[in-house]
Amino acid sequence: MRVLLFGRLGDLAGWRQRSFDPAPVSLAALKALLAGEDGALGAALRGPGVQAAVDKTIVRGEVALAGADEVAFLPPMSGG
Amino acid sequence: MIRLSTEPFEPGAELTAFCAGRTESGAVASFVGIARADAGQTTALELEAYPGFTEVEIGRTAETASERFSLHDVLIVHRHGQIAPGEPIVLVATAAAHRREAFEACDYLMDYLKSRAPFWKKEHGPAGARWVEPTARDLDDIARWD
């Protein structure tokens, strides 16, 4: 499973894409794994306005990751 | 049509093509966003997109706008990657039967793009680089339409 970090999250972690095999079973497990490796990233992922997308669909709350290919963490967005 | 581009685009040519052949749309409104130098404080903009997600999300909002404002057509061209001051970042063009719907839809789509479209914007300048997040004003602007 691929994990993608966008915007300031990628700068903070020092990576923008990584593979995890086996895939964590849930979004909570993935966040716990990342927080265990990097406390600052863990805190940022729980910060205000950070959303998660599983296979390019925004998810809210807790979700299982069985069968998921890609999880992306999206900080507050700004275009234009 | 929604298009993301890492290369500069020419808003005039895009708008000419968008207007061509319209015999039923009495109104086309457009907006061009240009990268500001901020008196030398910004030397480059870097926009990150999420390919395969960003276009789909923008397309969904373009469909919402089409229904809400009875549009005949929408064009959104948005840069990502490195952008120099003076270069266009975004073009929004809307076609409708009458001007009010075209103007309002253009305004709505720009408010959406500033604070809810999946882009992440970094300003580079002499003092270093910083990620830009929506301002209080950007959030007030989009809240006008909720």
Walk me through what this model shows.
The complex is a heterodimer of chains A (80) and B (146). Chain A has helices at residues 8-13, 27-37, 39-45; strands spanning 2-5, 17-19, 51-54, 57-59, 70-74. By secondary structure, chain A is of the alpha+beta class. Chain A has one domain (2-74): Ubiquitin-like (UB roll), CATH 3.10.20. In chain A, a hairpin with a 2-residue loop joins strand 3 (51-54) and strand 4. In chain A, helix 2 packs antiparallel against helix 3. The termini of chain A are far apart. Chain B has 146 residues and is α+β, with helices and mostly antiparallel strands. Chain B contains 4 helices and 8 strands; from the N terminus they run βαββαβββαββα. Chain B has a single domain (2-143), classed as Aldehyde Oxidoreductase, domain 3. The mean pLDDT of chain B is 95. Chain B has helices spanning 11-19, 54-68, 99-115, 136-143, and strands at residues 2-5, 27-34, 44-49, 73-79, 81-83, 88-96, 119-125, 128-132. The two termini of chain B are 24 Å apart. In chain B, helix 2 (54-68) runs antiparallel to helix 3 (99-115) and helix 3 crosses helix 4 (136-143). The A-B interface holds A 4, 6-8, 11, 49, 53, 56, 72, 74-80 and B 33, 47-48, 50, 52-53, 56, 78, 89-90, 110, 113-122, 131-134, 138.
List keywords for this structure.
heterodimer; A: 80 residues; alpha+beta; Ubiquitin-like (UB roll); 3 helices; 24% strand; B: 146 residues; Aldehyde Oxidoreductase, domain 3; 4-stranded mixed β-sheet; 4-stranded antiparallel β-sheet; 4 helices; 34% helix; 34% strand; globular
* Cα radius of gyration of chain B in angstroms: 15 Å
CATH architecture of chain A: Roll
Task: Tell me the CATH architecture of chain B.
Answer: Alpha-Beta Complex
* Helical coverage of chain A, percent range: 25-40%
